[in-house]
Amino acid sequence: MKRSIVWLSVALALLIGRGSARAEGPPFELKDGDRVVLIGGTMIEREQESGYLETRLTRRYPNRSITFRNLGWSGDTVEGISQAGFGSVEDGYKHLVEHVLALKPTVVILGYGANEAFEGKAGLPKFLKGLDRLLKAIEPTKARLVFLSPTRQEDLGSPLPDPTAHNADLALFRDAIKGEAGKRGATFFNLFDLIPDGARANPRRPLTSNGIHFTPFGYWWWAAVIDADRVGTITVQSTGGIKDVGISLNFDTSFKKLEHTETGIQFQLLDATLPEPLPPGRRSGSSKGSHEVSVSGSVEPGRYTLKVDGKAVKTADAAAWKDGISTSNGPEFDQVEALRQAIVAKNQLYFYRWRPQNETYLFGFRKHEQGQNAREIPQFDPLIAAKEAEIARLRVPVPHTYELIREGEVGK
Q: Which residues contact 384 (CB under 8 A, 6 or more apart)?
């Protein structure tokens, strides 16, 4: 015999998780139609391999069409030194500027200073002069500028060197970049303080592989600095004559169709944005955007299962549900991971488009040998466009049906 379960309240709240730094200067917001171009050294180039920053910014604006193009180049400086190839430094600089201008960006995110800081305080005037030159060169785009500071070198202990002296130099470049952003009325993000100071500050899971280069987990971590979400709650009362039932929601969540069933309670949620992606290697866990489900009132002893779209995502006893249980698995998290994978695939295709292998044979001084194959490079464009369409579809949340069902009555 099926037994009715009396639920006096169900609460859902957004889990805030760890804090994130706020932008200094103008608020950081992307607009519909923005074309975002990222330029800089290794930190920028390798971001496209994990896509955490782009994923977070894309999910924040599900109804805005925003494109991202990563022009980062490992070891690069404001002079475009890594892009010189077989030419001069000036050729590398020209290569960088031409690609930025060709993309007609409305937003440019700059991540320079880490390589220049190896020259110490003596290299600061040269860096600032080069930065000013680069910014003037891309000024015709009228793009909004976002400056990222270099990060502190993580102290991973012996046998790696003590980073204390180098971090002092990096701090000088951080402060200089902050000053340049302020003079231009641009947004500045301080990534230097993202990495804690001190030996083996996070020994169990360091953010870098060698003190300098971020791991995938490190990219997941630092992306949160730029993705600062709003958090809040609202309370709505149920309808349909269900007495004494209240629902507390994240204000970016739409709620409807609360109803009692013969086996428990059922309702629908439509989040305004997808949750943040989970850390690499994790299929569940704490995540901003998680729903915390709790029940109060006369809850019969026993075990209860939370199902989303008919699929069980969590089972616990009544006491645990009364304390509140967060859910960081389910279709919303599958969708944001699919979004991230689509972004990574798009970035790879674009990388092949703007930095093809054997470029010397295709466009350089040996193009007389294989230059006829250069016609294949534009064939990446429709592939990239297809991935952009997939990203546009995946960034939009869809409604999901939640059920809390007493164990033993599931499937009845």
A: 346, 349, 350, 353
**How many angstroms separate the CA atoms of 9 and 7, rounded?**
6
Question: Which residues form the domain of 144?
Answer: 35-226
Candidates 242, 238, 274, 285; CA nearest to 261 is: 242
The pair phi, psi for residue 2, each rounded to 5°, is -75, 140
Whether 315 contacts 308, CB under 8 Å? no
214-257 pLDDT, tens digit per residue, is: 999 999 988 887 775 443 343 333 333 233 334 444 446 777 77
pTM (2 d.p.):
0.87
The identity of residue 56, as a single letter, is: R
What are 78-88's pLDDT values in tens digits?
999 999 888 89
Q: How far apart are CA 147 and CA 183, in angstroms?
A: 12
Do 354 and 270 share a structural domain?
A: yes
Tell which of 193, 226, 259 closes a domain. Answer: 226
Q: Distance between CA atoms of 106 and 175, rounded to whole angstroms?
A: 25
Q: Closest Cα partner for 402 from 178, 249, 197, 227? A: 249
Quote the CA–CA distance of 89 and 81 in Å, as a whole number. 5
CA–CA separation, 6 and 131 (whole Å): 65
168, 193, 226: which is the final residue of a domain? Answer: 226
255 DSSP β-pair partners: 269
* 301 cis-preceded (ω within 30 degrees of 0): no
Contact 259/274 with Cβ under 8 angstroms?
Answer: no
Q: Cα–Cα–Cα angle for 306, 310, 316, nearest 5°? A: 20
Which residues in 251-394 belong to E strands, given as ranges? 253-260, 264-271, 291-296, 303-308, 311-317, 325-327
* 170: Cβ contacts below 8 Å, ≥ 6 apart: 113, 114, 117, 150, 151, 152, 153, 192
Question: For residues 177 and 188, is the Cβ–Cβ distance under 8 A?
Answer: yes
Q: Are 247 and 179 within one domain?
A: no
Please tell me whether residue 154 adopts helix, strand or coil conformation: coil
Q: Are strands 233-237 and 246-250 parallel, antiparallel or unpaired?
A: antiparallel
Residue 30 in contact with residue 228, Cβ under 8 Å? no
pLDDT digits (tens, 9 = 90+) for 172-231: 999 999 999 999 999 999 999 888 887 565 556 888 999 999 999 999 988 887 775 443
The dihedral through the CA atoms of 332, 338, 339, 344 has a sign that is positive
